[in-house]
Amino acid sequence: MAFTGSALRIQCDENLQSMLVGTVMRKIKSRTWKKQRHFMLQDDCMTIWYQSKKAGNAHSTFSVSDVEAVREGHQSEVLLSIAEEFPPERCFTLVFRGRRGNLDLVAESEAEAQSWIKGLRKLIENVENMGERERLDQWIGDWFKKADKNHDGRMNFREVRDLLKMMNVDMNEHHAHRLFTMADKSQSGSLEDDEFVLFYKMLTQRGDLLRVFQEFSTDGQKLSLTDLQDFLQDEQLQIEDTQSQAQELMLKYEPSDAAKQMKAMSFDGFLMYLGSVEGNIFDPRCRGLYQDMEQPLNHYFISSSHNTYLMEDQLRGHSSVEGYIRALNRGCRCVEVDCWDGANGEPIVYHGHTFTSKILFKDVVNAVGKYAFKVSPFPVIMSIENHCSVEQQRVMAQHLANILGDKLLKTTLDGKPPIGLPSPHELRGKILVKAKKMGGLEERFCGLGEDSLTAEVSDEDEAAEMDDEGIHRDSLRRRVMKSKQRLSKELSDCVVYCKSVHFRSFKHARIHSKFYEVASFTESKARKQLKEAGAEFVMHNARQLTRVYPSGFRTDSSNYIPQEMWNVGCQIVALNFQTAGEGMDLNDGLFSQNGGCGYILKPAFMRDAEKRFDPDNPQKLDGYQPLILTIQVISGQQLPKVNIKEGSIVDPLVRVEIHGVPQDQNKQETRWIENNGFNPVWYDTLRFTIHVPELALVRFVVEDYDKTSKNDFVGQYTLPLSCMQQGYRHIHLLSKDGTSIPPSSLFVHVRITQL
Where would I find glycosylation on this chain (predicted)? Predict the structure, then answer.
């Protein structure tokens, strides 16, 4: 397949030339598993090939587009464990997208390591900067390579037939042969580069888009500037300066210079525009930082992780600092640290009284310090569950101070008695500790501070909460009976704005609680409160922070649905980031806006402690204005194959789910289309009434229908209703892991009207 423009540009790079030749490096899995493998960049400048000794498979490959980052030196636990054997200059780590494990490598020399580090970074940058046209060329090239079984650079009809099955197309042989013959311009009985591109274009003709194009085209052949303006205004409901917008889109997406000179857009240009960021369902204006970041901390939903150190389940799972790095790189702003006494006076982090592996507290602090502000400048909260002796608590305080330095918030921002929580903007670049504390924040300003080096505090932790839920393991019961714990002054002093306290009742909190106190609830305890006193819960959260975490029964690290907690204004709704599924889809959807910074401003009616918002009775809200959301699911494009059985083709259906206040919870489905995952067409219309649009998330799920068993998951996409663009839009689907699966998409029409 021919190189894309970018690939041609990067062929001259000497690092890439070296990668094309190939290098022998050590692949490291542990201190004892270190094996030599031959790594080589393929000619497409997109695929890395490496020799593998797995049974029946002589080699493995991965795509550059799967690599998220390249870390230099000893920047993984595996490479740190062999640090004495191999110098950092020869070591690097490939971090993959989603939940796939890292690839740790050691080159034979520093020069070879640099060649791969620089070369890979250039390739990753190239992928990220690809235009729509180049992405399409790349995609076509990938299919050509998959289909060209004998690697002769051309495709015969048998290879084309196999390709159609791979692409989820159930097409009768006669029609497939007709397309093949039409594309075979050279009449050679096989398709080469340009002929395959023609075949692909005939295969992917978009009748659904052509219909829209011709509806707005005056002559049926092109869109004039006025035609495109009308389309943007009448269909896409864009109101700001549609003339200059239309001109910009023509310049950006029209491939024909002749059409550009005529100030027109061809069907190809229209196709490119609707597949782009501007044609996406997610409003580009919500992508960057657009919210007010100067409100008190408790006025924001905060992206939060539970058992951050775990990579798997809560009984025997692997603990790793990688959990912290991954969560922080996903915009998480509150991480959990379970601390226990370790050997040699060093505190350790693990899930207590289980067989999960253990890591050093100081390694966790190092990772948090290093990665806290890579993707977001706003504060990170370390939620510490402290089970340590006074001596090891002092070691914890030393590590926090020595490793984090100025990043650790050790006093109020201006050194004066505070009257409320500071804002994310004021706390930029700061790491806050949430933990138990001796006395209150005011006491240090009134000379009433605790003089002793230790004090007793009530032992509030997840083990105690789990006992409330009825888990009666002996080890946990012993812990709960010890209701008082000694606390070191040094660790207590690290807590400023997030003092962990026990929740008694909303009435007690209203009278006695301080703005800097944070109560933690298990999901079941929070659910009980929101059902019995939803409006009270909202008002409580308008005054102070609340943390919710998964039930102790979830030993598989599964997640609850966070929406019901957000409905009452809970800010720190902690989820198991390591577990893919609906809970994390909603979390990713909510926090995909506002620059992915991990803080989302709560609606105004949830920020005023005097206003009464009851999520169970939204009609009582001042300014109540429900909306009608109408979604026409038109078509799907190149859906991934989920069943590996030979000849199996997807039978897709689309489910649209509304997640919001109880009255808004709803889901509707299209019919299923038999044997067509390549270009299914529905034209099915789904309608929803939405009472509290400010809290609503919309989740699109594609499934492979199965009449005898549970449907298989194909892809999904979740976004806030407030970030949804109207009109004709593409939805670029994500895998179960939350990673993109180009070019799989849905084409929909969206209308939002007042009831």
Answer: 186
Q: Compute the distance between CA of residue 613 and CA of residue 535 in angstroms, rounded to an integer.
A: 6
Out of 74, 299, 306, 387, the active site residue is: 306
DSSP helix/strand/coil, 218: coil
Map residue 37 onto helix, strand or coil. Answer: strand
Burial class (CB in 10 A: 0-12, 13-18, 19+), 506: middle
What global pTM score does this model have? 0.89
pLDDT at 548 over 90: yes
Q: Higher pLDDT residue, 11 or 689?
A: 689
Check 74, 299, 351, 691 and give the catalytic one. Answer: 351
Is 306 tagged catalytic?
yes
Q: Distances in Å between the alpha carbon of 214 and those of 122, 249, 258, 260?
A: 41, 18, 20, 19
Exposed (0-12), middle (13-18) or buried (19+): which is 6, by Cβ within 10 Å? buried
Nearest Cα neighbor of 441 from 545, 506, 380, 513 is: 513
In this predicted structure, which of 16-30, 93-107, 350-364, 648-662 has the lowest mean pLDDT?
A: 350-364
Mean pLDDT calculated for residue range 649-658: 95
Residue 502, annotated as binding a ligand? no
- For the record, the structure tokens of 671 come out as 């019919």
> Among 349-353, 465-469, 701-705, which stretch is predicted with the lowest mean pLDDT?
465-469
Lowest mean pLDDT among 137-151, 170-184, 300-314: 137-151
Locate tokens 């999520």: which residue? Answer: 615
39 is in an annotated binding site: yes
Is residue 489 annotated as involved in ligand binding?
A: no
Report the first-to-last Cα separation within the chain, whole angstroms: 53
Find the farthest-apart pair of alpha carbons in the chain and give their distance in angstroms, rounded: 93
Left if phi > 0, otherwise alpha if psi is -120 to 50, otherwise beta: which for 73? left
